[in-house]
Write the structure tokens for this entry.
Amino acid sequence: MPESAIVTPETEKRRAILTKLNGRIVPSDGRFHPHLAAQYVTERDSRWIETGELAKTFYFSNTETNRRRIRHNMFRIMHAVQDRNRLLIVETDPREGHKRCKVCDPRVIEERQMARRQIDRLEKMKVLKVERLDRARELLALLEQAV
């Protein structure tokens, strides 16, 4: 094995985490990561999170460009939340696109209906792979059984 292939603590890539810096929660490496955004959203699953809040957390300022970057990455966040066995519902605005998001609460009928409509819309648009779509339907069925 060549010496350059040996993994040491200096060469090992460290996984970013959410940390508190000056009273704000930010990624430890200052970059956007879908798994960190999913963690941020799932830890605050009882309330709606505006795209501006995510932009401020992951891009350090709530500007139109950063909100656009968050909206562009919303599918990655949805997939990461789904990997945590939760469903992310996204409220959209006809002018702006994705406006805010929240982890689906199975006790709230409106949120379950929003999740169902969202899954149907994604299926109609054919933007999700069959495996992801099936997994989303399974999670929705589990949420409805839990009530």
Summary: Strands lie at 18-21, 24-27, 49-50, 88-93, 97-103.
